[in-house]
Design brief:
The chain has 415 residues and is α+β, with helices and mostly antiparallel strands. Among the domains are: 117-207 and 235-290, Metalloproteases ("zincins"), catalytic domain (Zincin-like, 2-Layer Sandwich); 329-412, TonB (TolA/TonB C-terminal domain), CATH 3.30.2420. It has 13 helices and eleven strands. The chain has a four-stranded mixed β-sheet with strand order 1-3-2-4, sandwiched between helices. It has a three-stranded antiparallel β-sheet with strand order 7-6-11, covered by helices on one side.
């Protein structure tokens, strides 16, 4: 099997338990920081998402570099190799190919969806249509008051129900036409103050990375849960900033309540004012109160932590038990098809070659000899060259790898 497919397949499978550990640690940290400022909770969520990307990326690199064994376990990693011992698993080639194939297809579709969203935003922001001179002047003044030195463009468009901020070097705020005509100007200005908070903090940049992580690790629910926490806390930070700029959180709460009556159009590639749960954000602005620890919500977390510790304990116990004795086993994924000698192919020579060879404690083939000839020296020598390219799982006795001898036959046929 292709080395990249094998390494990638094991990386995806191992992220199942890695994501559970990251999710459990994140839930515990957020429970301890339940009454902290949203900036602290946002930092925890961002760090967890980056860990979800960095851990499998490091594992993939080590597997490709040869720093892990055949099952993809780290040579000195967190879990013992006995948890997935090579001799305890069947041939995983077909499973890993299926895992990688399905993952690649789904990730490609999500990436295409993200690219189309970016194109839609770029087209909406670059077109001459949708310019509104009075609101552009007001937004520019608000941007200066918020400490934003870059020019922030404003476009009034149809097709969305909530303002959203986009762009890294040339930020733009897209405003639905229905709000410009149907919402009181002071309330719309409050929503624009919220969007300027996202522009000031460059939230669009991390939001793009967040979407990339979601596309790559779409199969793990912990990633989606952490990502949701990040979006909620990001909106809380922007709410607090806008409330300070406006001098009164009540106006922003009234603006959010107006949005609640609309049918929202969520664009995850942009940072929109409708992110998070609107009602909880309104209550938070009007009546902030300490959050009590919900022990019922902590029960699944405790169960998850117990399960992880149980699995780890069993793996440690199994790792301390010497593996059972076994004969040497061929790793067929390492064997390449022998090359039919051109002269034998032209002469239509066929036959069966039986070889005897030594397998070292490292699983390498040594000292091969012909036990039964095919009748053609060229075919015999081609068989010896083919077996030399294979690697084996060496024989075990008392937990130690030993040299051993084995026999194998090659059948040369023209069918």
């Amino acid at each position: 099997m292709n080395a990249l497919v094998q390494a990638l397949g094991w990386t995806l499978l191992h992220f199942v338990w890695q994501g559970l550990l990251i999710g459990g640690a994140t839930a515990l940290a957020l429970a301890l920081l339940r009454n902290a400022r949203p900036e602290a909770r946002y930092a925890v969520g961002c760090g967890a998402l980056l860990a979800c990307l960095a851990w499998p990326a490091a594992g993939l690199y080590l597997r490709l570099a040869g720093g892990v064994n055949a099952t993809g376990m780290y040579a000195g990693g967190l879990l013992p190799a006995a948890l997935l011992a090579p001799d305890s698993l069947p041939d995983m080639s077909l499973l890993l190919r299926a895992v990688v194939g399905i993952w690649a297809l789904c990730a490609a579709l999500l990436a295409l969806r993200m690219a189309l969203g970016m194109l839609w935003i770029a087209r909406s922001a670059s077109g001459p249509a949708g310019r509104n001179t009075p609101w552009q002047a007001r937004l520019s003044g608000m941007a200066l008051d918020a400490g934003i030195t870059r020019a922030v463009r404003l476009r009034v468009i149809d097709g969305i129900a909530s303002p959203l901020a986009a762009g890294i070097w040339r930020p733009v705020v897209l405003v639905p036409a229905s709000l410009v005509t149907g919402m009181p100007p002071e309330l719309l200005a409050a929503l624009l103050a919220h969007e300027l908070a996202h522009v000031r903090r460059h939230d669009y940049l991390f939001n793009l990375l967040q979407n990339v992580i979601e596309a790559l690790l779409f199969f793990h629910p912990a990633v989606w849960w952490i990502s949701r926490v990040v979006r909620i806390e990001r909106e809380h930070i922007a709410d607090d900033f806008a409330a300070r700029q406006l001098g009164e959180p009540r106006r922003l709460a009234l603006a959010l309540s107006e949005l609640e009556r609309l049918q929202f159009s969520t664009h995850h590639l942009a940072v929109a004012a409708n992110g998070g749960v609107l009602m909880s954000r309104i209550k938070r602005l009007l009546r902030p109160a300490p959050q009590a620890l919900n022990w019922k919500a902590a029960v699944p977390l405790l169960a998850l932590a117990g399960a992880c510790l149980g699995i780890y304990g069993q793996a440690v116990a199994a790792d301390g038990t010497p593996p059972a004795d076994r004969k040497a086993l061929v790793n067929f994924t390492s064997c390449s098809k022998p090359v039919y000698p051109p002269a034998s192919l032209q002469a239509k020579e066929t036959g069966t070659v039986r070889l005897s060879f030594q397998i070292s404690a490292e699983g390498k083939v040594e000292d091969s000899s012909v036990v039964r000839s095919s009748g053609y020296p060229a075919l015999d020598e081609a068989a010896r060259s083919g077996i030399a390219k294979c690697s084996f799982k060496p024989a075990l006795a008392g937990g130690k790898q030993l040299d051993s001898r084995a026999e194998m036959q090659y059948v040369w046929t023209l069918d």
